[in-house]
Design a protein that fits this description.
heterodimer, A: mainly alpha, 13 helices, 2 strands, globular, B: mainly alpha, two-stranded antiparallel sheet, 14 helices, disordered N terminus
Chain lengths: 292, 329
Amino acid sequence: MDTLLIHALNSLLYAAVLFLIAGGLSLIYGVMRIVNLAHGSLYAFGAFVAAWMVGRLVAGPTPTAVLYLVLAAGAVVAAGMGATLEPSLLRPIYKRPEEYQLLITFGLQLILEDLMRLIWGPYPLSVSALFEGMGSLNIGDSIYPTYNLAVIVVGGLAAAGLWAFIYRTQFGVVLRATSQNMRMAQAMGVNVNRVYIEAFTLGCFMAGLGGAIVVPQQGAVLGMGVDALILAFVVVVIGGLGSLEGALVGALMVGVVREFGITFFPEIELAVLYLMAAMVLLVRPNGLFGRA
Amino acid sequence: MSPVPGVTRRPSAAAVLIALVLVVLPWVVEPYQTVLLSYGLIFAIAALGFNLLLGYTGLLSFGHSAYFGAGAYAVAFTVKYLKVGSMELFLLAGILASALVAALFGLVCVRYTRIFFSILTLALSQVLWSLAFKFYWVTGGTDGLRVPTPTLLGVSIGAGQDKMVFLAHRYYYYVLVIFLAAVGVMWLIVHSPFGKALQAIRDNETRAEFVGVQVWHYRWVAFLISGAFTGMAGALWVPLNGLTTPDILHWSFSGEIVFFTVLGGFKTFAGPVVGAVIFNYLKTFAVGYTVYWQMFLGLVLVTLVLALPTGIMGMVARLAQKWRRAPAP
């Protein structure tokens, strides 16, 4: 029973981080119809910035509460990068066939991966002090790191916050209108350029936040973005590109399959995930929650 | 209609000249240069196959590493399990394996177009990557599988002969002949009624369907041919590289195939070939010059997409047109 609970918690942990990445990817696709191949790199950037900032400030074995807030710097920097990249690189190619959009974001991904190597060197950064600083909880006979629970809570809060933002605010209405019909929204007086830049920034913020909260637990490693991107793809393909509910459900499904896959069928764990995505596309081309 | 009329109608004097240069080359330059060019020609075969989908059928595959890798691993498996050492059997195994994988994946993928096609091909290729990565007792995992020097047409490498010399002469010519044959076959395919039907599908799927083209079926056959060409390239690549690792199944290698096709220009027949050879030089140069070669390639790609979307061949065609139009002095 306890082990099952631990498995469930681990699944939720994966799902929380995955939702932050895939939710941003899906949001960007939903609004701008762009599949951002550099999205995983922004997640990795968030992780590196957070690790670096905390590493500068950490002193002594017991971290102060402020340091946990410093992690958010990763999200802020990723958002800033999004706000710069959208108008400079993406805006010129919206009118071109989508092949070019994939290509330019692929090029961007190559650049960002090496930029991280250039700035932080080839070695992993870690801030495990933050992970250990929170201690662990006893769950039955097992112990579980408190920090993992915190990540799950942050993921849940992010999902709730995003939902409220999109369905309960003026900005959310504009965002959804643009997503549904960009021309019509423009005709009604929506500044589409501004909506695009805001949506892209928000998506990058979420990716950066995902990277930042994962850092104390896993550290920041080169290549983490590329792996995360593919998993995020699986999530959005299952859930439906452009749908946030889909990203949430997809992240939960992938989280569960990964957790049990690693335990019970480690050899084919990844293959099962990709096949799952392919199967969903076959049966429901637009994903479980996608719209045509 | 051929993608750029007038430029690619028949083998021009330039093409014949280039073929001649390719034949003479091993006698003129260092073996290293010849081997480097062999890599370029092999990637060019993969790009030819890839462009049957992108340039002629209008489908952007982000999973062609699967077929290249299927060809390469098929060769490695025939060495490991069947103890075969003949290049002809290697090619046969590579083509069969990649065609089989392409036939299977194609069944799923050709029902979609645009972004969904790209993501689906990517996801399926990652299935193969993760299998090659995880089943290390079969595939050698990240260590990969070694492939010894094969016999060419039954003749093995001479005792005590330098492998570099073998690769730079006999193997180079072997690759060159297959490359020229591949170019010829692909030329016939894209100019056949079948090729025209693919272009009709690319330009307007609905209309093509109304004039009686079975869209899914044609796309599937194109997918199959495309995969088999790429797999043949993979089979040729392994003996040259001596080793196959999961890297060539990873989606970033698919990205490279897309890259060199766009670099050359996917709207021309010759574009992918030119792009593959140039990309190979570009990457070799960048890797030797800086550890940040990915960034360099990324910058090239971004610049290319923003400033030169028709690629090298598109630019050449434009310059040629301008030059022809200019009044004689």
